[in-house]
């Protein structure tokens, strides 16, 4: 009698079974799906991403990606940040399926459904994984929280309105 033994899949293997473009993330080993963001979220995201992309390309600094774009942070966390910047020094971590490790800069734009994740859970994971600069944008109020990684810990660099002042890019973006 022949028996088939099913291989136990890890989180990444399970994640890769989903069809392309499914709005899903893995946060601390849990799968989360969400609908498309509201129009204001998309408008703010596009304004920020287009300015970052133009500046990065003009100055040959690296690459910018917008969600949905998979970031494989570690074995328990696969995120699709709203916007990421990857410096030229880290481009070797790009793959056909996304990015392996911590991007240099991440921008998350708050939605009602993900506010706690972006402000708490993801912030802790980004910090632990070594994201150098993290922005959290409230599209309704235009408030921007800015965190910089120093000695392995995020410190709040600034709170501003409608502007991202990146220290690693040495550039400001208004929206």
Task: Briefly say what this structure is.
The chain has 175 residues and is of the alpha+beta class. It is built from three helices and 14 strands. The termini are far apart.
How does this structure look, described?
There is one protein chain. By secondary structure, this protein is α+β, with helices and mostly antiparallel strands. It has one domain (11-174): tt1808, chain A (Alpha-Beta Complex), CATH 3.90.1570. The chain has helices spanning 11-15, 39-58, 115-129; strands spanning 24-27, 30-33, 62-66, 71-74, 77-79, 83-87, 94-95, 98-100, 105-109, 133-137, 143-150, 153-161, 163-166, 171-174. Strands 3-6-9-10-11-12 form a 6-stranded mixed sheet, with helices on both faces. Strands 5-4-8-7 form a 4-stranded mixed sheet, covered by helices on one side. The longest helix is centred in the N-terminal third of the chain and has 20 residues, at 39-58. It is globular.
Write the layout of secondary structure elements.
Blueprint: H1 11-15, E1 24-27, E2 30-33, H2 39-58, E3 62-66, E4 71-74, E5 77-79, E6 83-87, E7 94-95, E8 98-100, E9 105-109, H3 115-129, E10 133-137, E11 143-150, E12 153-161, E13 163-166, E14 171-174
Parallel strand pairs: 4-8, 9-10
Antiparallel strand pairs: 1-2, 3-6, 4-5, 6-9, 7-8, 10-11, 11-12, 13-14
């Amino acid at each position: 009698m022949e028996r088939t033994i099913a291989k136990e899949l890890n989180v990444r293997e399970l994640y890769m079974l989903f069809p392309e473009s499914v709005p899903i993330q893995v946060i601390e080993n849990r799968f989360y799906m969400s609908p498309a963001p509201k129009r204001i979220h998309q408008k703010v995201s596009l304004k920020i991403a287009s300015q970052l992309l133009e500046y990065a390309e003009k100055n040959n600094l690296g690459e910018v990606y917008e969600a949905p774009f998979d970031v494989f942070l570690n074995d328990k966390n696969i995120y699709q940040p709203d916007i990421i910047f990857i410096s030229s020094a880290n481009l070797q971590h790009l793959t056909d399926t996304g990015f392996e490790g911590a991007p240099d800069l991440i921008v998350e734009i708050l939605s009602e459904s993900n506010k706690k994740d972006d402000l708490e859970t993801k912030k802790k994971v980004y910090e632990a994984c070594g994201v150098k600069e993290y922005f959290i944008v409230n599209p309704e109020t235009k408030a921007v929280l800015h965190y910089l990684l120093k000695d392995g810990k995020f410190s709040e660099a600034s709170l501003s309105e409608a502007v991202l002042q990146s220290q690693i890019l040495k550039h400001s973006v208004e929206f």
